[in-house]
Each structure stands twice: as C-alpha cells, then as structure tokens.
Amino acid sequence: MNNIDRIQEYIKDAVISPLERLMNGDSGEPEVNLYEKYYLQGGYPPKDSVYRSMLHAMMVPYYEMYLNGDTRLCCAGNRLEFVGRKMESIIEDDDQFGNWASDKDLINAAENWGDNLKRFEKESRRIYRFFHVLEVLLESDCQQDWRDLSQKLKEMLFKSELCYDYKTDEVLCVLHAFTMIMQQNWPKEKKKEMLDLLNQHWLFLKHYYSVMIRHIIGVKWTKFSKVVETVMSSSQSFKPHMHIFYCGLMDCVDELHLDKKHQREMDRVMLLMQEEMNRVNEHSELLYPLCDAIFPEDFQRLLREHRPKSYKEIENESNQKDELILQLKDQTNRTRKELEKSKEIIEKMVLSSIPIEDVDAELEQYPPGTAWDMLKDLNANPIISMQKAWREHYPELLRKYRARLFGPIEQQQELAEAITKVAERPTYGAYYASGSTHDDKSSKLVLGEEKEKMVPLKRISNE
Predict the structure, then answer these.
(1) Which residues is 455 bridged to in the sheet?
(2) d(Cα 242, Cα 280) in Å, to the nearest integer?
(3) Closest by Cα among 105, 103, 133, 104 to 117
(4) Cα 149 from Cα 90, distance rounded (Å)
(5) What's the confidence (pLDDT) of residue 256?
(6) Do 111 and 164 contact (CB within 8 A), yes or no?
(7) Rounded to an integer, what is the distance from CA 303 to the centroid of its chain?
(8) Where does the pLDDT of residue 196 fall: very low under 50, low under 70, confident under 90, or very high at 90 and above?
(9) Model confidence over 353-367: pLDDT tens digits?
C-alpha cells in the first residue's frame, strides 16, 4: 500500500466512518482499532498538505450536507452535539474549508435548512444547529460579499407578508443577522462574541425580528398580540430587554394593518406591557451593540423616540425635581429676605429725612410690581405717613408708580379696543353705474350696498 492509499484509508477509518455512524445514531467511535492498524504499523499519517488536501476532497459531500442542513447530518436526534464537535475537529484540520465555503450560495443553504427544519416543528432548538454552521464559517474565515448578501436578504424579508414560511424565514433572519455582524469593523473575537450573543438570545430576538420585518417568524402564530404576550410573560430572561421589543412595536404597529378587533386587542396588551416594563428596575443595554449592528438605520432612532424610562430613571428625575423645588424655595426665601432688608433701608432713608428724590431714585431700581408694593407698604407705616415731606410727595409718587405698573397694560387695552373698532367699522365700496366708463363725464357713483340709489358725480370744470 503506497502512502496516498494509506492516507486515504486512514481518513476513511478515522474520519468518514465515525461521522457516518453518528449520522445513523450510533456511537462515533471508529469501527477499527486505529492504534493497532496504523500506529503500530508505522505511525499515524502526518497532517501535512497532502493529508489536508485529501481530507478536503473526501469531506466535500459531507460539507454540502452540513451547509444545507441535511437531516442526516444536522438533525441527527440526540447525537447533534457529537456531530457538531466532530465537524469542528474535521474542519480544523482542513485549511481549504473557508475558501470552499466562500463560493457557496448561503441564501440557498438557509432555504434548505428551513425546509429540513419543518420536519421537526416540535423541536424548536434545532434552529441552533444552524448557528453552529455560522460559527464554523466565521472561524474558518469564510469570505463573502456580506453587504450584497444582507441587501438581498433584506429585500426578501422586509415585507408585510411571509417570504416562504415561518420556519424558513426564521433561518433567513438568522443569516441576515450574521451578515450584518460580518460587515462590522470588529476584530474576529468581537464578531464571535456578538454571534454567541445572538445565539443565546435568539428566542427573544426572533420576536424583535418579527416586529421589525412586520411578519411573524419562528412560530405558527398569526396574531401579533400573541407575540407581545409571549415577550411579556414567557420568560424572566426577556424582562431586561423588553423595552427593545417595545420600541420596535411602537414604531411599526401602524404598519401591521390590524383590523379594529385586533387593534383593540393589541392596544390592551401594549398597555399591559407598559405596566410590566415599569416594574423592571433596570433596562439592560447588553444587546444594544448587536441590535445596532443588525438594524443600523433604525435602532438608535427607536431608542430615542420610544424607549420608556426605567424605574431608576423615573426615580432620578423625581429626585431632580425635588432638588429643584428645594433650590427654588431657598432662592425665594433669600429674595424675600433681601426685599425685606431693602424695605428697611428705604424706611430708614425716609425717617432720616433724606430727600424724597433720593428715595424715588432708589425705588426706580426695582421692577414696577415690587416698587409699587414697597411704596404702599411704606405709606402703611404710621410713623412714615406722619412725615410732612412724605405726605406732600406721596400722591405724586403714587401716580408715577401706578402709571409705571398699569400704564403698559392700559395702553395695550386701548390698542386692542382701537383695533376692534376698526375691524367692526362698516366698509363701503365705490362702483361706476352700469354702462359707465372712467372717461364718461356723465358717470354716476354707486356707494356700498345702495347700488340702486344713483348719485350723480359733480363735474369740476377747468374752464
């Protein structure tokens, strides 16, 4: 047996056969003793370039099955995790997988996944096998035109009706999210982190996707109110992120084209969701970078326009209002004390026989209302009112500060009355009598509504 044949047989015994046994539901252990057959007979074949090339060529049919969600490989009962780990180890040894996958139609692959997953409607977690395929594509540095791919998916999905069916559309949405992640200017580790976040929270995010693309994915429900109720009550893990779903719903609810019955039902559950969100102490921002990457044109705007305030924010605002009220009260007290002090100084000025002109000049420093009140208070003081100089000048001061306070108001009232009189004054139109012209010296003028009464126009002779 030459070296090529030996490598080929080893790959069949160590890789292909265990994989096929897993596909059939059996143990993934090799059927032959690899140690005795290969190690004791000259050692295992080295995983050099020859080995990698042969491994890739022999695995291509299985890669096709894996990429397209073939039920024998991707839905293999309780052996799913074993298959996943086996495929990972194989692809780690195949440095050509990434280049091979770069030329594949991933939309067609997702459609095939959807068709195959429909056979397992009661096992919703099988969608997560597709996430494993995406993880392998990311890890192997698969290169596609992610921007073009995401645009095609958006044109397919962002409609008011289903693109295919609830299961296939779900897979297409996962692929869309993956293409948006791959477009970001993030390091590879950051992209893996975001894909893992998408995987962990997909049960919630698929409801958010349903709102954003205006039709329900992942479940057979036909009513959006049912989706809202699920987000609101099905899982405690949804609570910190509920506001994200709510923002999308508030923005898109008018585009769901609900009839009156379903709109009333939607209004009811949305009010319940608002109440539920008010009980959440803190809205999580964990999914913000992911959602911003998936929906870059909408997500930040949705948060600005529709994000409800958290309990902590409401509490902080309440505390700020209380603080402002305290500051206002403190400022009012200080102003009142300053006015009282000013009033005392003016009283001393009058009692010290300081000329009234100086008192007048001091009063002019204050706003009209304040000056008027201070003047009245000064005159109410019996000691001041008995001062001869004060009694002589008070009437004049009273007229002055009354005009200063009430003058602008009275002027506005007079102006308003004048405008009203002008508006109510009847208008008269001047008309020439029928058949007359401007040059007709016998023309007669018709005034207003009295067109029947002809008034002769008096000629002015230049002679």
Answers:
(1) 445
(2) 9
(3) 133
(4) 27
(5) 80
(6) yes
(7) 3
(8) very high
(9) 778 888 788 888 888
> How far apart are the two ends of the chain, measured CA to CA in Å?
142
| CA separation, residue 318 to residues 181, 274, 276, 281 (Å) | 39, 19, 20, 15
Number of neighbouring beta carbons within 10 Å of residue 295 = 18
Count each helix (H run) and each strand (E run) in the chain, helices first.
23, 3
Task: Report whether 141 contacts 98 (CB < 8 A).
Answer: yes
Residue 172 has pLDDT above 70, yes or no: yes
**CA 413, 416, 418 angle in degrees (round to 5)?**
110
pLDDT of residue 439: 52
- Tens digit of pLDDT for each residue in 245-274? 999 999 888 888 788 888 899 999 999 998
Per-residue pLDDT, 359: 79
Whole-prediction pTM value? 0.68
Take residue 191 and report the two structure tokens written for it: 């992209």
Q: Choose between 106 and 234: higher pLDDT.
A: 106
Residue type, 370: T
Distance CA 302, CA 311 (A): 19
Instruction: List strands edge to edge, sheet with 450-456.
Output: 430-432, 444-447, 450-456
Q: Report the sign of the C-alpha dihedral through residues 194, 196, 197, 202, in that order.
A: positive
Closest CA to 15 of 93, 68, 97, 96: 93
Quickly list DSSP for 6-34: HHHHHHIIIIIHHHHHHHTTS--S-SS-H
- Own/partner pairs for 262-266, CB < 8 Å, 24+ apart? 262/223, 262/224, 262/225, 265/223, 265/225, 266/224, 266/225, 266/228
Beta-carbon contacts of 47 under 8 Å, excluding residues fewer than 6 positions away, are 93
Q: How far apart are CA 351 and CA 323, in angstroms?
A: 42
What is the token pair recorded at 458?
A: 């008096």
Say what the pLDDT of residue 187 is: 96
